[in-house]
Amino acid sequence: MPHSVPSSPKSTPKNGGNGLTKFTNCRVLKGDKLVDEDLWVNSVTGKVVRSQAAFYDDLCLPDETINLGGRILSPGFIECQLNGAFGFNFSTSLEPAVYAKKIKEVNKQLVKTGVTSYMPTITSQRSELYKSALPFLGPSGDYQVAEDGAESLGAHVEGPFLNPTKNGIHSVDVLREAQSFEDLVDCYGLSNITTDETGRPSSIKMITAAPELGQMTRLIPELTSRGVIYSIGHSEATYEEASAAIAAGATMITHLFNAMRPLHHRNPGIFGVLGIAESLPRPYFGIIADGEHLHPTTIKIAFNSHPDGFILVTDAMHMVGLPDGAYEWTNGDCTSHIVKKGPKLILEGSDKIAGSSITLIECVSNFLKWTGASIPQALRAVTTTPAAMLGLQGLKGCLDNGADADMVVLSESQTNDGLDLVVDEVWKFGTKVFSRQT
Question: InterPro entries given for it (predicted)?
Fold first, then answer.
């Protein structure tokens, strides 16, 4: 398949070195704290290594020691909802070679924003588009090298099993209901939703669907047993229906508050499952902190309701990094346009918000300014928490021993509005792939 072509080791040390890099004079994100300590990484294995073992047990000296001057060293950011970026929309039908080339271009640009891993997202489309695009969006896994840039953790399919009354800008003409697992297979293709005989994971990592439609809630265990995360979204689900979905195995909510039944004092709807009075596990949830989708106070309420489930997402479209203007967008069977004016995207001829054009680091800075959260709390929303939601604890979203050496060096910039975090450097598998100074 397109995402399973073997490649070389993570990196080759320069000048015959051992591939070890030591970061010193830095504040490393560890849990809920920024800790003053050194960090060692190995570009050959692509992993974080225990400095005492490298220095004392193996008698190794680093190839390079980097003094970060007190700056923050964070795990690489994880983006869970990205519809496209830098001019390419993942929901596009192209010749395979062209599609693959576009993905590589996005990966190399995306990593410069601090995003080292992400879930490429396809909106509601016809089956033919899913079947042609999804093979290119599966998990990169061991085939990824640092120079490739950001890596896919698996595709997020946002639709087409959505409630037509909460479609957002998704075309109602392509929305469907599922009565059986065969309906999902018919839509996405068996190989894209099932682990093959070699153990290679399916292309799809997460599905956003309305649990109240058809037999979708009954199908959740079938999906989760195949390693697919079920996320509630674009839904009219009542509190009871959302609770039933959680009981069946749903563990995520797509862009909380947007495209769903609003909170009501007598029926809290989907938001209600974040409450602590129930016996059910509380799900993770995505929040778009672009200043358009949600009021800052709404974001603060959501965070305070369940901090450990709070995940910042962009829901960004392919207009990220592009100037203002009208851009073509494939919307089911139709071609429409999305108008970009600054950070705001609107479906042409309507007043509907059409995703965002914000970057994840901008969402982090907005969250800091709007909520009074600490820097560790804000960074956890794009590192540790999404990694936990994806079942990647200890591998992604942290800088523990043995974790992938995906890192972002951040500086702090005080503005009139508050504190901004700035991406200075990005390292992928222990190799520097971006520097703001070059």
Answer: Amidohydro-rel (IPR006680), GlcNAc_6-P_deAcase (IPR003764), Metal-dep_hydrolase_composite (IPR011059), Metal_Hydrolase (IPR032466)
